[in-house]
Amino acid sequence: MEINIRINGEAIRTHIDPRITLADFLRTRADARSVHLGCEHGVCGACTIIIDGKIARSCIALAAAMDGAEIWTLEGLRDDPIIAQLRKSFHESHGLQCGYCTPGMLITARDILMRGRRLTDEIIRESLAGNICRCTGYAGIVDAIRNAEASIASERLAASI
Amino acid sequence: MKPAQLTYCRPNSVGEAVTELVEGGWNAKLIAGGQSLMPMMNLRLVSADRLIDIRKIDALRIRNDEGAQVRIGACITHDEIQRGEIPDPSNGLMPYIASRIAYQAVRNRGTFGGSLSLADPAADWLTTTAALGATIEWEGVGGKSSCLAEDFVLAPYTTRLEPSDLLTSVIIPRLPGSAKWGAYKLCRKTGEYAHAMAMVIRDGARSRVFLGATDGAPIRLPAVETALKDMTLWSAPAAKTIAATCRADIAASGRDLSDVRIWQLCTCLERAIKMTFGLQEPMFGETSWK
């Protein structure tokens, strides 16, 4: 079947096999290798991407159902200011080790920061419950997101003065 | 960990979807958010020769405030309910419940009607709609039909829906402003399916009390509802009475539950009732951030 889809700003029109998941489609047909496959049944969060502005798991979405959708993966967010800050904070706070969960963590962390609420560790931890990391013990990731929030807030303050 | 071969179609109306269901027979499956069906298909626990995508059918996306009741389309997502994008007839119960379902990435795609028609006993909406006295509506080859949410489930993963039926919407009666609710579910980890849950709606002398995440349909507790009638404040003796009455109600239901499960359900019930008296904070969830 044929689908029209926008991936990281680029319009693609292509034939697909209806059984292909969005995750496999992104990796094999759109070269979006940041989409990592851990569990392939919606538990680990490594394949988290953005569909029409909302985070979702690409391993339990069919590419066939994405006709007309706008998808963003980490590849397309290279210049996104929040991702840039998160990249820095994850580096400084040891928010990653092997890196397998990191793309999903970054997309989820961006979603958490974009809700525009004051974050507590409790909120961050609850919001990360759907993303599994087997290296860091999460402490570094929680620190990274909290520090990213503080950096973004102080930059905003500086810009407003 | 990939779905087997399948064909995919996206009908434009409920009528077309029903026709596809009839043509596909037992090997046709409806898909909306796919947040339960896709994992099962990836694991090959379920196969579907014909997948019928109903997510974008307009008639299934309704959100009608009809005054005394609100009609919610089957394909409204948990996230839309959580964010208050749907008129709320429940004094905040539904947004709260929605905010505690799985994870944000799942809430963004998973649907209200999908969760109900799958009828996993541990799913939140079965117990919530039962407690709210909701009516579930569907359409099939035999035309339109409906039943009370508390009569909808026959057994785990088994509802009154026939193979060609499609759940279209749910009617939720509006709670009086004075009604208080309490909801508690027991999860070892945030976002996982509950091990036990209880839902209580208390409005003066009238109450509705249900237990969920059992071995099938939610269990109504009529004796607890009666006991709550005269209760004006929560106390240690009250807790004792409720615990005993809850056990009696479970025994009278004839359901086969382990001692541990009964203990878990009674604990959830006590916490849910305390919530209606303002003595137990709602659990952490997106709506409690505000």
Describe the structure.
The complex is a heterodimer of chains A (161) and B (290). Chain A has helices at 22-29, 81-92, 102-114, 121-127, 139-160, and strands at residues 2-7, 10-15, 48-51, 54-57, 70-72. With 161 residues, chain A is an alpha+beta fold. In chain A, strands 2-1-5-3-4 form a five-stranded mixed β-sheet, covered by helices on one side. In chain A, strand 1 (2-7) and strand 2 form a beta hairpin. The longest helix of chain A is centred in the last third of the chain and has 22 residues, at 139-160. In chain B, a hairpin with a 3-residue loop joins strand 4 (63-65) and strand 5. Chain B is globular, with a radius of gyration of 19 Å. In chain B, helix 8 packs antiparallel against helix 9 (236-253) and helix 9 (236-253) crosses helix 10. Chain B folds into three domains: 7-53, Uridine Diphospho-n-acetylenolpyruvylglucosamine Reductase, domain 2, CATH 3.30.43; 58-173, Uridine Diphospho-n-acetylenolpyruvylglucosamine Reductase, domain 3, CATH 3.30.465; 180-276, CO dehydrogenase flavoprotein, C-terminal domain (Enolase-like, domain 1), CATH 3.30.390. In chain B, strands 4-5-10-6-7 form a five-stranded antiparallel β-sheet, with helices on both faces. Chain B is built from ten helices and 14 strands. Chain B has 290 residues and is an alpha+beta fold. Chain B has helices spanning 14-24, 37-42, 78-82, 93-99, 104-107, 112-118, 124-131, 222-229, 236-253, 259-276; strands at residues 7-9, 28-31, 50-53, 63-65, 69-73, 135-140, 143-148, 153-155, 158-159, 166-173, 180-186, 196-203, 206-212, 219-220. The A-B interface holds A 1, 18-21, 24, 37, 40-43, 45, 48, 51, 54-57, 59-62, 64-65, 67, 108, 111, 117, 122-123, 125-127, 129-130 and B 1-8, 10, 31, 34-35, 38-39, 42-43, 51, 53, 55, 79, 102-106, 108-109, 189-191, 284-285, 289-290.
